[in-house]
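hey
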């Protein structure tokens, strides 16, 4: 992805400043909001990447959209605008979140289910991830009806597949290779 290396550097600097000011949690919430908003709004992303829109308009639009930002986050926006890199704001936000999670030993768990998780099930999955890995986790739920039922859990390099589709596939292979059943 274009701008990732620069975004990592900006995120590292923002995290360092946030640590010094003891506002890492507030800045992380800001970055979550910025990332979700930019990723869900094609118009906002187009405005940020447009060379036609002036930087002062971009800044005023961002400050109007994100009214309750921490001082460190506002300063980061100012620096990105000043350096002509406001187009990578959402990438900087993503990199900040990654570095924040690494600093706090929080892992990303991805759960694929046939239906969306409810709150109770989400809490059980997070508890199981903590039991398996020994660290906290954030949970991302992907809904994929093709797995029919059950779930697929991924945490880093670990994957646990308890989906109905996988079990049916395994059963099909076993029946296909069974000499007694294949004669019928």
């Amino acid at each position: 992805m274009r701008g990732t290396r620069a975004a990592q550097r900006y995120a590292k600097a923002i995290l360092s400043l946030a640590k010094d000011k003891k506002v890492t949690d507030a800045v992380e919430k800001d970055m979550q909001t910025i990332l979700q908003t930019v990723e869900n709004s094609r118009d906002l992303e187009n405005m940020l990447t447009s060379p036609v829109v002036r930087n002062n308009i971009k800044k005023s639009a961002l400050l109007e959209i994100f009214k309750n930002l921490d001082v460190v986050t506002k300063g980061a926006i100012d620096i990105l605008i000043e350096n002509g890199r406001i187009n990578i704001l959402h990438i900087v936000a993503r990199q900040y979140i990654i570095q924040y999670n690494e600093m706090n030993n929080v892992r990303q768990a991805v759960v694929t289910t046939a239906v969306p998780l409810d709150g109770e099930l989400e809490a059980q999955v997070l508890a199981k991830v903590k039991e398996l890995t020994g660290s906290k986790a954030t949970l991302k739920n992907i809904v994929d009806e093709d797995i029919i039922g059950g779930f697929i859990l991924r945490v880093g390099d670990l994957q646990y597949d308890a989906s109905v589709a996988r079990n049916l596939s395994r059963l099909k292979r076993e029946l296909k290779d069974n000499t007694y059943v294949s004669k019928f």
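The beta strands are 106-113, 136-143, 150-155, 158-163. The chain has a mean pLDDT of 89.
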